[in-house]
Amino acid sequence: MGWGEITSLQLDAIQEVGNIGTGNAATALSQMTGRTVDIGVPEAKIVPIYEIAEQYGSPEDLVCAVLIRTEGDLPCNFIFLIREEDSRGLADLLIPMDISSMDEEMQAQMRESALSEVGNIVLGAFLNAISMLTGYVLPASVPSVAHDMLGAIMDVVASMFGVLGDAALLVKTSLRVKDMQHEVGGSVIMVPDPGALESLLQRLGV
Amino acid sequence: MGMADLVAIKKTGILVTLGLGSCIGLVLFDQQNKIAGMAHIMLPDSRESASVLKPGKFADTAVPQLLDEMKALGASKSNIKAKFAGGAQMFNIPGKSSSFLAVGARNAEATKDLLRKHGITVVAEDTGGSKGRSVEFNLVTCMLMVKTLGMGTKEI
Fold first, then answer.
1. Does B90 contact A146 at a Cβ distance shorter than 8 Å?
2. How large is the average pLDDT for residues B20-48?
3. What's the CA angle centered on B78, arms B144 and B26, to 5 degrees?
4. Hey, are the CB atoms on A155 and B42 less than 8 Å from each other?
5. C-alpha A87: how far from its chain's center?
6. What interface predicted TM-score (ipTM) does this complex get?
7. What count of other Cβ atoms lies within 10 Å of the Cβ of residue B97?
8. What is the signed CA dihedral for B18, B131, A94, A186, rounded to 10 degrees?
9. What are A177's strand-pairing partners?
10. pLDDT digits (tens, 9 = 90+) for B89-142
11. What is the number of CB-based contacts under 8 A between chain A and chain B?
């Protein structure tokens, strides 16, 4: 079964997972940064895999993506996507000291580690939501962080979906950390392995 | 050109694909007759997938389709040569060798195999690594410009 054959009731159920997941993520981020974190209403939608990149911008836009893979009851890849320019601000919020006097290499390493943690928090919150709703045990891999062109990142995402069919499920989320110059909008993309989607929907009872 | 697209052109023009990650930007060209085609290949093998809506999506369907379209434009099989770029591995999870994450390498390998099977010489390639690429093929010069993020631009 691919995402193309999903019913609107099933899409609603996934959206609810997104709602709970985003709520959990906001709470976790808020605790870590000590700031207020607002969330927008997540939107779950099905798009053709060939148009995934266009949902987020132009192919050469620079983005930061954090990927976590789960095994066990639900073999699945989860990706958290933010704009490159936002990733720096978000990373700095998690680093509890001024690192501007450190050398470039060290700064980059610290930000990388912080972003990996952001991915852990946001995606971990999603996994918790799924665990809670399904009773699944979801052991997760360590996060992998990539900074690249949107098109290049989405190539990988589209290929993962592409094995299943020609449609992809995107859960668009928006997390706004208060006191930052601008809004940080993140997206979660969930790519189940072949067969995993059926079992998830079954567990959700739709 | 977007994902899984496949296009053949004649006489003059430029074929462009922006932001290639694990995918392959494959160019076949007949320099004598000035005919070229490009495909944005996403996956190695159509037999692993449930549906084949676009032949450009898979290496094993893209290569014959591209050859057919170029021949229809008047290309001669014996003149056709290949250049390709892409096939990077964007994500790396330590201790895991998920075939999904290594799809770039499998794409490059499959493309090379398919070209060999069809008797087409690969004159240049730029594959692997962990960074995205944008490619631009100029039919007049038959050069493929490859722009790799953070590593500048080169012509192959």
1. yes
2. 91
3. 30
4. yes
5. 13
6. 0.84
7. 7
8. 30
9. A37
10. 988 877 665 666 788 999 999 999 999 999 999 999 999 988 999 999 999 999
11. 118
